[in-house]
Design a protein that fits this description.
alpha/beta; seven-stranded mixed β-sheet; five-stranded mixed β-sheet
């Protein structure tokens, strides 16, 4: 047998083994896809992919061959993502609002192959995931210009779901009206209170009255069905397109850095990860002098940095509050375990609602 035939036979044997290994790999990918679906995690994890490529490429000693092996790894990862997208194509993501709402836009940015499912309000969307009607729910935590969304914090405190990711989505508010309507014709704008607050400068400058609506897309739908030509909605370009409206004034936000932080809630907390760098914790302190100060000291003394601390009424007792804390550090470490142990001495209730690697901007 000549050298060419030997080489081809060897390639055939290698290809046979590679087919078996590829099948095993894709079976493992199924498990990864299920894990991500259950926990509301996106298919693409760029950081993880780059870490794998850097680590595995070092297994190939030949410099020239290593370059081809990097391409081989990237192709494999793309195939894996495509497979996961196919497996999770039926993923249902709950949100509050109607088609065109910013939460629906955010859902499609985070989970490109998902089906966003609309609910009338935050609680109904949240409860749908609790009941298993949807795989996860995406809800706004905070707007960079107009502040916190207290209802969502309450759901996080009183409900059973976990936050497995936080995403910063740039929000551009626009004035939406019917065909032929001009800005000077508008006397009233309708939208969600957050959107109205984000555009207060524009509203005041033009002397417009305001009407609060459940969400921005519902406001756009209302305007589209109204016979009036002196009203407009504030919302997204997507909402304008869906409901047959025109953007008569674009980017009317008071701040050009208007961003909303959306959290993905799911029924299962993701597995502890050594690369986690941020956490969201909810707690109540004992009704004793200095309890809150002691809790904050415990957090700081164990090397964890608080990025935010906010209080909300528990609604169970008058003047009784729970605290929403966002921090930096990995709770899945000995230091984190020590932190939780010491907090229990000064807190009545502690809930780690989320631990994740980083906040992602989309």
């Amino acid at each position: 047998m000549d050298n060419l035939s030997k080489a081809r036979n060897e390639i055939n044997e290698i290809d046979k083994k590679m087919a078996e290994l590829f099948t095993r790999r894709m079976e493992a990918v199924k498990t990864v896809a299920e894990y991500k679906k259950e926990r509301g995690l996106p298919i693409l994890d760029k950081t993880r992919e780059e870490e794998v490529i850097e680590k595995n490429s070092k297994l190939v000693k030949d410099d020239t061959v290593r370059g081809y092996y990097v391409n081989f790894l990237r192709n494999n990862m793309e195939l894996s993502r495509n497979f996961q997208n196919r497996l999770n194509n039926g993923m249902k993501v709950a949100f509050a609002g109607v088609r065109g709402a910013f939460a629906a836009v955010a859902a499609k940015k985070i989970f490109k192959s998902c089906t966003p499912i609309a609910f009338d309000n935050f609680k109904e969307a949240y409860d749908a995931t609790v009941k298993g009607e949807t795989d996860c729910v995406i809800l706004p935590l905070e707007n960079s210009y107009n502040g916190d969304v207290g209802q969502v914090m309450d759901l996080a405190f009183f409900g059973p779901l976990y936050i497995n990711g936080v995403y910063d989505i740039s929000i551009t508010q626009n004035l939406l009206a019917k065909e032929g309507v001009k800005t000077e014709d508008i006397k009233e704008v309708i939208s969600h209170p957050q959107a109205l607050g984000q555009c207060a400068g524009f509203i005041n400058k033009n002397g417009l009255s305001t009407t609060e609506f459940s969400n921005t897309a519902a406001a756009a739908e209302f305007v589209s069905k109204s016979d009036r030509t002196d009203i407009a909605a504030i919302g997204s370009e997507e909402a304008a397109e869906i409901y047959g409206l025109k953007v008569i004034e674009s980017c009317i936000n008071d701040s050009n850095r208007n961003t909303t932080r959306f959290a993905v809630f799911s029924r299962t907390a993701k597995t502890d990860n050594a690369s986690d760098k941020q956490f969201i914790m909810l707690f109540t302190v004992k009704n004793e002098s200095g309890s809150l100060g002691k809790a904050l000291s415990v957090i700081g003394n164990n090397g964890f940095n608080l990025r935010a601390l906010k209080s909300r009424p528990t609604k169970e007792l008058i003047w009784d509050y729970y605290f929403y804390a966002e921090g930096e550090g990995n709770l899945n470490t000995p230091a984190g375990e020590k932190l939780i142990t010491e907090l229990k001495e000064v807190c009545n209730h502690i809930k780690i609602v989320g631990s994740f690697e980083r906040e992602i901007s989309l």
